[in-house]
Amino acid sequence: MIYLFYGSDVEKVRAKAFEWVVKARIKEPNLIYARLAREELTDATLEDAALSGGLFVKRLLVLIDDPFAHVKDFVNPSSDEGFTKSQHSEEDNNNILEEHLDALATSDNAILILAPKLLAAKAKKLVAKAKIEYKFDLPVQAGKPERGFNSNLVNALAARSHEKLWLEINRALSAGDAPEMLHGLLHWKARDLMEKGSRVWTIKESRALSLSLISLLQSSRRGGLDLSLSLECFALSI
């Protein structure tokens, strides 16, 4: 069974998660405790977390600590090589954990997933599998500087760089920008490209770009793919 701790208040999320571990071990002294860092997540370690037990060890308590890489973890975002290696590393970790979610959710073991600053798309998947979720967010706008116009985002679209656009979308989402706001900026830039022209985008391509963004938003509102995830897929498709 999965117990999910997440939210924007990183310190509180971590403190509450480890406090929960302490209380669980007091309540059930025979629990065998193990902590798995992101780098330790493999098919083998996750299978052990879900299935291990036996005659003398009835249950495990496994804490999976911050399993998802964040944008700040990219080695060198300005380098194509650095981006590719980091992107692949993140995708591998994400896929490994998500492939084992069903087994972890139905396990008799207590699986505590500690994931501060979890993106909305991933939070939705994990919440659906969790027995209990504990979310701790910072007060709205607490200690958060106002964010102005995101020129890096629109410039990445104008340059038709799917790698840079994907990265800027994830940076903005991690910083707390609403996906609807990002969509609005991208659609504004698509219309701007239609009006002014571009060496990278033809007028016909810019019009198709604008229409695809409209369709993407409508599909999300009708209950399709989560908008933040749809924007990531859009970025990789340009």
UniProtKB/TrEMBL annotation:
Protein name: DNA polymerase III delta N-terminal domain-containing protein
Superkingdom field: Bacteria
